[in-house]
Amino acid sequence: VIQKLLGERETNFDNEFITNIVDAYLDEMNQHGQRSTYFSKENLDSLVQDLFVAGTETISNTLHWTIFYIVAHPHVQVNIHEEIDRIIGKDRPPCDKDRSRMFYIEAVLLESMRCHCAGPILLPRATTQDITFHNYFIPKDTFILVNMWSAMKDEQHWSEPEKFEPERFLDENHRLRNVNHPAMMPFSIGKRACT
């Protein structure tokens, strides 16, 4: 399916009308021709597959686990229902501005992502220079894999980390807290974080 779609995109490519990452990639391929080992059809295929998996599988996985936790914890379902009734009511459909006031539901999503990270190991990174990190020497060009799962299950950062507890993301006024917790990184952190 991906090959067919890429073939159609390549056939209909117009460098005057670049609208997405595939168009931009095809434009780079055309500009560099055979000189580029990076901008190749094989790499384009891999990029599109990665984007497809990252854009669908992670969301699907997160939603499946969230539903599981809601079903496994009936009090969470009751609290969600109460928040929906309080913020949205029964007389209108939800709208975008409602989300910023639905702290409990946001906390449930955050806790679900903390408990079952959609991508537990970050994509590989490489050091650009020799560094020492926490007394460990890491030479330049070393591939680094970050285990986000362990950070989000670390007892130094989370009390009872194996327990599903959305309230850990709410303060005493039931407003969000810990959203930017240093060990909360379901989509990585820093400038390479997924949005």
UniProtKB/TrEMBL annotation:
Q: Which GO terms describe its cellular component?
A: cytoplasm
Q: Metal-binding as a keyword?
A: yes
Superkingdom: Eukaryota
**Ligand binding (heme):** 194
Any one GO MF annotation of this record = iron ion binding
Arranged from A to Z, the UniProt key words for this protein are: Heme, Iron, Metal-binding
SUPFAM superfamilies on file: Cytochrome P450
Identify the InterPro entries for this entry. Answer: Cyt_P450, Cyt_P450_E_grp-IV, Cyt_P450_sf, Cytochrome_P450_fam2
Q: Name one GO biological process term.
A: xenobiotic metabolic process
Swiss-Prot/TrEMBL cofactor(s): heme
**What family, per the record?**
Belongs to the cytochrome P450 family.
PANTHER family found in the cross-reference section: CYTOCHROME P450 2U1, CYTOCHROME P450 508A4-RELATED
Q: What is this protein called?
A: Cytochrome P450
What organism does the UniProt record list as the source?
A: Rotaria sordida
